[in-house]
Amino acid sequence: MSEGRGASDSPKRPEKVLPATLTQMKLEGRRIVMITAYDAAGGQVADEAGVDVILVGDTAAEVVWGYRSTVPATMDEQLIMTRGVVRGAKRPLIVGDLPFGAYEVSNEQAVENSIRMLKEGGADVVKLEGGGARLPRVCAIVDAGIGVMGHLGLTPQSETMLGGRRVQARTADAARRLLAEARELEAAGCFAIVLEAVPAAVAAKATESLTIPTIGIGAGPACDGQVLVWHDLLGLGDWSPRFAHRYAELRRDILRALTEYGEEVRSGAFPAAEHTYGMAETEQQEFLHALKVDAGELDR
Question: Which among 12, 97, 112, 245 has most CB atoms closer than 10 A?
Answer without folding.
Answer: 97
